[in-house]
């Protein structure tokens, strides 16, 4: 058992029945899907408990990372700490997920090979905010209005101007 570094993959067929745990950092692993999102993940750590035996294998645990990605408001990089929890049924093939219904999250481990890196990458992406932004709602100096939904819209001085802009928006994109 490793206590300081997570394995990149786990060969489940070699595990004795019972609970097996790992905890530590994910070191030196590229996370290509986070890179595709324009981001990078540092300080990726986690803990995993894999239960094998008579029942379908179950993987439970949590992970943390610091994801650096472009802020949707000011487009400058923002570092966001993320924290994910997971409780997954391990299946050989995604088709087997149907047996558990849509509610039960699964992780696919083809031929008993659990890809820990890909699984953690999934969880980090799921834990990211939908719209990554700086905590400072004025990080762009107020140039754009991407504020919370309950933030009052700028007041128009002339209601007829507002009507004009609504009419113009009919043909094009509204915002
Ligand atoms: Zn920003």
Automatic annotation (TrEMBL):
The segments labelled Disordered in the record are: 139-158
Instruction: Tell me where on the tree of life, at the top rank, the source sits.
Output: Bacteria
Q: Where are its TM segments located?
A: none
Which keywords appear in this protein's UniProt record, sorted alphabetically?
A: Ribosome biogenesis
Is Ligase one of the keywords UniProt gives this record? no
* Any GO BP annotation: ribosome biogenesis
Cellular component GO terms held in the UniProt record: cytosol
Q: Which family does it belong to?
A: Belongs to the DUF177 domain family.
Q: What does this protein do?
A: Plays a role in synthesis, processing and/or stability of 23S rRNA.
Name under which the protein is recorded: Large ribosomal RNA subunit accumulation protein YceD
């Amino acid at each position: 058992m490793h206590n300081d570094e997570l394995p990149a993959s786990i060969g489940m067929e070699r595990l004795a029945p019972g609970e097996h745990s790992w905890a530590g950092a994910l070191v030196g692993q590229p996370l290509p899907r986070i890179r595709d999102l324009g981001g990078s993940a540092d300080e990726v750590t986690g803990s995993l408990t894999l239960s094998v035996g008579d029942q379908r294998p179950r993987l439970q645990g949590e992970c943390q990372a610091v994801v650096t990605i472009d802020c949707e408001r000011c487009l400058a990089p923002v570092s966001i700490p993320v924290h994910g929890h997971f409780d997954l049924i391990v299946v050989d093939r995604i088709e087997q997920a149907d047996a558990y219904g849509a509610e039960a999250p699964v992780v696919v481990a083809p031929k008993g090979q659990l890809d820990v890196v890909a699984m953690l990458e999934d969880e980090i992406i799921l834990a990211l905010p939908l719209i990554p932004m700086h905590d400072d709602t004025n990080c762009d100096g107020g140039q754009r209005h991407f504020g919370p939904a309950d933030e009052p819209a700028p007041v128009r001085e002339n209601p007829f101007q507002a009507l004009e802009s609504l009419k113009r928006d009919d043909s094009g994109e509204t915002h």
